[in-house]
Design a protein that fits this description.
9 helices, mainly alpha, two-stranded antiparallel sheet, 2 domains, about 70% helix, single chain, 2 strands, flat
Length: about 260
């Protein structure tokens, strides 16, 4: 059983070799135009995101996230907004007492397109960037270590909870807990898992705080790193291209609005 505490997939792809800041710039270069540019532009931002998945060679891992997390979320949001948004006059069909209008479905599609781009962009960052490299690079560029730690902890919280939950489930199974039979029994089995998961996470937070303090995390002295994250000229050019993309998309929105 793997206890990987991050989504990072160790591969040697062109995307993996990019500087972490370049990939972080890519994330915002996808999200900002999707949310702030013309509405018709948002679905198209999914194309470079999906291309990045193939460039990074993480199709299998991304597919797992897509079917387990992204698609259920956006399909639920699309259904809720299509049915319950009180807008529009072009009724397509009725669902009980609710009228599903064309305008509501268009708004729902725009919303889920933006959510898809945002979540998928961050998924690519997590799959192709080691958390330690991201934290080291951000700290080297002047970001306070406290902020860098908050960012990395946020990115790692889901895989850490998954790993801990899997460990607890295995331990409870060895004690005879039924977690694979009927749906109702599996729901009932959740209760014995919640307590150890919550309290174990709290203990882990305290242990981590003691560990980073023992390593001089709050020290004001200059810090060094055993691993230097490369930042090539190609990375700098790519970041400028992403920045230009954001400026052009926002300029187009202002010009055409």
């Amino acid at each position: 059983m793997s206890l990987n505490r991050s989504f990072f997939v160790p591969l040697d792809s062109p995307l993996h070799r990019l500087n972490p800041l370049t990939k972080l710039t890519f994330v915002f270069a996808m999200i900002l135009p999707a949310f702030l540019s013309l509405p018709a532009f948002a679905p198209g931002m999914a194309i470079p995101v999906l291309i990045a998945v193939f460039v990074g060679g993480v199709q299998r891992q991304y597919r797992g996230l897509l079917f387990k997390l992204i698609l259920p979320t956006i399909l639920f949001m699309f259904f809720m907004q299509s049915v319950f948004l009180p807008i529009g006059e072009t009724v397509i069909f009725q669902l009980g007492r609710f009228d599903v209008t064309l305008e509501a479905m268009q708004t729902a599609f725009l919303t889920v397109s933006r959510i898809f781009v945002m979540v998928s962009s961050f998924a690519i960052l997590l799959l192709t960037t080691h958390p330690g490299e991201l934290m080291s690079d951000l700290t080297r560029r002047g970001l306070p270590p406290q902020f860098a730690y908050v960012i990395i902890s946020t990115l790692q919280i889901l895989p850490q909870m998954q790993a801990k939950a899997q460990t607890i489930i295995s331990a409870q199974r060895s004690r005879g807990l039924d977690t694979e039979s009927t749906f109702l029994k599996r729901v009932g089995a959740v209760v014995p898992l919640v307590g150890p998961l919550v309290f174990g996470s709290l203990v882990e937070v305290e242990e981590r705080a003691i560990a980073i303090e023992a390593r001089g995390f709050t020290s004001t002295r200059p810090k060094t790193s055993l691993h230097n994250v490369p930042d090539t000229n190609a990375d700098k050019i790519i970041r400028w291209i992403f920045l230009a993309l954001v400026i052009l998309s926002l300029g187009g929105r202002i010009w055409l609005s």
